[in-house]
Write a structure and sequence with these properties.
Layout: H1 2-10, H2 16-33, H3 35-43, E1 60-61, E2 79-82, E3 93-96, H4 99-114, E4 120-125, H5 127-132, H6 136-148, E5 154-156, H7 160-173, E6 177-182, H8 184-193, E7 201-205, H9 218-229, E8 235-239, E9 246-249, E10 255-256, E11 261-267, E12 270-275, E13 281-287, E14 296-305, E15 311-316
Amino acid sequence: MEITKSFASDLYTLNETGFDDIALAIFRFQAENNAVYASWISSLGIDWRKVKAVEEIPFLPVAFFKSQVIKSGDWPHKTVFRSSTTTGAMPSVHYVNDLPFYLQHARRCFEYFFGSVTDFHFFALLPSYLERGDSSLVAMIDFFIRESGSAYSNFYKDNLEKLLEDIDQARRDGKRKIILWGVTYALLDLVEKHGPDLSDCLIFETGGMKGRRRELTRSELHEVLKKGLRVDKIYSEYGMTELFSQTYTKGQSAFFCPPWMRVFIREVGDPFGRLGSNKTGGINVIDLASFSTISFIETEDAGRVLGEGGFEVLGRLDNTDIRGCNLMVE
């Protein structure tokens, strides 16, 4: 569709005013062309034609991805991503019509915060994600590895000795920074079995105990990893299978959005009640890059927006499924 091409081309030239204009244009497009979203809006008693401000846009509960096909427009899907879950839980399913756009956009999100992927070696310690074969995280990291052009970048399942040997080889090369991107329990295994000195590396944790360990708060986890890997900072990514964009920390607790995303905090029990800075509630996300599916998602995560910008993820809201992502209750 020509309109979706226009959305894609407008993403990377946004300013504050432009965000609202594009968000409203995408809302109208999705309200008219996404059957699930249209039905949800109707059930709320809202006439989408009368929505004139971003603050009035209704958000679709993320649980619909577990039972419905979420598409804006009529297109054949070419890729399917599924969320990680605990045993027996229903995964979210995200149908993707343009995998190259997803991958290039994920690169844009990363590079907005950290610079070119060609400046890094990527070491991925994501064993449980690799086993699934339909993970958006694995697709993203695999693309980063290929785009980096690094001869050292690779995935590692459970061979921690090989991982450390290859990191040492990359370290001797000395021309790039090293990123170790790992699922939580695997990083803790690395600490306990080897306790390596990775003080010259950037450590990205993705969350996820997969029932293998006692859950820790993020602050507890980061203290263990910093001490065990001898680093000053631990970086985190907050992304969802249901979204196209990712947010990142800068080594502290706050996540920051790229220009094409916004996070709001809603009152629990009132989907239209928006909370101010430092108030805890449910996280709502606007992701303009998700124009082919849904850009306005009411998540099942608790958080708060911080006064200095950015936001914190504080865990799961009550009575929602637990799933294996970066959401440990503080």
